[in-house]
Amino acid sequence: MTSFSVKFSATSLPNSNRFSKLHATPPQTVAVPSSGAAEIAAERLEPRVEQKDGYWVLKEKFRQGINPAEKAKIEKEPMKLFTENGIEDLAKISLEEMEKSKLTKEDIDIRLKWLGLFHRRKHHYGRFMMRLKLPNGVTTSAQTRYLASVIRKYGKDGCGDVTTRQNWQIRGVVLPDVPEILKGLDEVGLTSLQSGMDNVRNPVGNPLAGIDPHEIVDTRPYTNLLSQYVTANFLGNVDVTNLPRKWNVCVIGSHDLYEHPHINDLAYMPATKDGRFGFNLLVGGFFSPKRCAEAIPLDAWVPADDVVPVCKAILEAYRDLGTRGNRQKTRMMWLIDELGVEGFRAEVVKRMPQQKLERESAEDLVQKQWERREYLGVHPQKQEGYSFVGLHIPVGRVQADDMDELARLADEYGSGELRLTVEQNIIIPNIENSKIDALLNEPLLKKRFSPDPPILMRNLVACTGNQFCGQAIIETKARSMKITEEVQRLVSVTQPVRMHWTGCPNTCGQVQVADIGFMGCLTRKEGKTVEATDVFLGGRIGSDSHLGEVYKKSVPCEDLVPIIVDLLVNKFGAVPREREETEE
């Protein structure tokens, strides 16, 4: 496998002297020539953070009206739980003792998210979800077995989920075990560092990178570089751990746009310029309860060698200038709106190594009329004599035994590698064609993870739901499966239809990109409060991407089946089963 490596020195850690002092700019105005903003006061361009004792903190003058998460960061630096090994001491304190102190209570509910640990206070008190960093969704059999060994010890509380960012989340973790788990992750080449809260999330790339006969570029070297930069090779990069909000990045490697560039804060779009390979940049895509926005062009192109420098410049502009008040208005697009695209671009240029950033290239390498390919099932690789097999993982949920079996199959039939996808499925690459039939006859593929699932199941996505997540309003995973099975009995569908479920307006299930989306809510029916969903319609992915809009609000979950059937018949060409049988 091709991979790049970046060496980070000890200067990536706190107490470094490499940070330059930041000075307020004298009052003046700066003209911004586009995007609706005529002028930006120079004092608005003063960085709101400064370096103290090796960490970036919000300046005193900008602390009025900040949100509770910002207050928690100021009260105690979250990264010290890792960089100064605070997790070792915290893991020795009982939960009962932690509850007596505001500081330690915030440690387990807020600051541990910088280590990828999410306390499930509402539904599984004392249990944690652990989110990993898995650039490009590529993992090994050894890593998969280790994760299986972690969740197995937690019995019914332990399981794993494939996420919508090509990542693993494992559940059931208890705090006393965390120091040992972190050591085990490091030994197999994994980390959970900086995977939650106001950090850069898992870099997404083409799940078929390096094996796709039609790929534009192998995204793995770039997603690896980005992940190595963000975490400083697992040491912790405190330059980018105090962002105003979370931040998503992807590198596009195929015409299929499996990576969903339009919903990322930064998307690298392959393009050539004057015979040089590089990337045009899209910025600002995001979902939130109050607003969803598609990424827009920054009017910038970078050569391949500048993938990390431009990421660093954009992150630093966002870190320095983003607002930290209402959490619903702190994603990067709000800053772009305020400064205008040109104003934001100018701030990025200031932070580039040579203070230069080329304008966008017209030589976009992504074919606009490309029909998105199916990756489930058996498909030939670019390597002659080899194929990959895409497996359907129902709503992304796996148990320890499943993970062990997947690892065994990867070793026995492939090269010991697994690929996770944003649709919560798994690909086994590098299988000799002579072994394909034997793999397809494996019990796991026959009974659990089919390479050829029913058409409505194959694109079904669901977030964690209220089984584990305290923010989810409704149960999603089991319900989405049950309702889809009911719908399948009523209609025959001949074209792919992507249905996504999310348990709350945070939309981790990305309902706005689905053909039909379901966002959890509550409503009243016959005088009782019942679980319901807002139904979204019309989301598209690919080169003609478009975010879906609300079709019906507050539909009780028990009333969804006939509505879905009606949509499938009238919008997606489905045929009622009874009519299909009559015509036969």
Automatic annotation (TrEMBL):
Its EC number is 1.7.7.1. Keywords: 4Fe-4S, Heme, Iron, Iron-sulfur, Metal-binding, Nitrate assimilation, Oxidoreductase. Pfam families: NIR_SIR (PF01077), NIR_SIR_ferr (PF03460). InterPro entries: NIR_SIR_4Fe-4S, NiRdtase/SiRdtase_haem-b_fer, Nit/Sulf_reduc_fer-like_dom_sf, NO2/SO3_Rdtase_4Fe4S_dom, NO2/SO3_Rdtase_4Fe4S_sf, NO2/SO3_Rdtase_FeS/sirohaem_BS. It is an enzyme of class 1 (oxidoreductase). Belongs to the nitrite and sulfite reductase 4Fe-4S domain family. This is Ferredoxin--nitrite reductase, chloroplastic. It comes from Solanum tuberosum.
